[in-house]
Amino acid sequence: MVESDKSVTLIPIFNDQAYYTKAFNYWRLIGNYIEAVHKWTDETFYVHVVEKLVANIGDGSDGKPLRVLGVGSGRGEIELVFLNKLLLKFPKIHTCVVEPCANLLTEYQHNIKEKATNFTFDWQNRTFEEFVKLQQESSLKYHFISACNSMYYVKNLQEALQSLYDMLAPGGILLITITADYTGSGKLWRTSPYFGSETSSQDGSPNSTLLPSHHRDSAHVHDVLRQLHIPYHIDNTTCYRKITRCFDAKESEEGNLALDFLTHTIGFRNAPKDLFQQVLACVKECSVQRGGDWFFQSEHICFFITKPT
Ligand SMILES: C[S@@+](CC[C@H](N)C(=O)[O-])C[C@H]1O[C@@H](n2cnc3c(N)ncnc32)[C@H](O)[C@@H]1O
To answer: What atom of ligand 1 comes closest to residue 127's alpha carbon?
Structure first.
């Protein structure tokens, strides 16, 4: 919970999965994130994942499927872009999908129905933490793991990153994407004292690895990877979201949804006036104006981690 003042407690958005799905789906619709990911996948992902995997483990001509793990896959939109790119070099792909939100998992299954002849799927409707517990006895490793915008939500970032790394096969690649700390949501959460690291720490300690989900950003991932001595390199993608309606969120249902996803709380329009105004000012500062509309600028940092062969 985020204590905004003594009388108001803002509820984290992930406490209500149905509402989270609604807000997330709206957030997707108002931005060009998917287009940006397509372009990024054609260029950067192809070189740093597809070609590198071929160099590390061969091209799948032995008939064995490439083993892929998706963590917090959502409705699969991003993962399917990656899988289709991998298919150019790996004719068979087995993907394990870990997604706790049943609605989003169903949307993912619906999205692949027609086009899945080269893929097999293992659907895991659970959190990553639950999946890790189940995997403890298993020696199964993955060639490619993606955790796109899901590390916000794991309870303990250090344990999650260590587990992801341990699940990589030799030569395998882990891709983590998360909002940058210096733009977009990362900047918003760091700018407002109500969303800042210290005030939102679950157990009151300033230990960043124990922060509750909604306030993590790329700086936390950097720190933990360094602590774990896991080498990585980074890249980034930028996208814009039309958030003009946020400025009349008190009247507009769409503005309310966008603002709730941005702040990762439920019903932010009912926050105390000072906090509400402060956050809207910061949203404006993180946005650019084009024509009569405001576009929130989001930069995501992509961490590439390779397991030595
Ligand atoms: C912002 S969405 C990203 C979805 C998708 N990867 C994308 O990039 O479009 C975050 C996803 O993480 C999932 N998630 C939340 N808590 C999680 C956890 N503890 N373990 C794994 N996934 C989680 C959510 O259900 C949601 O689908």
So the answer is: 20
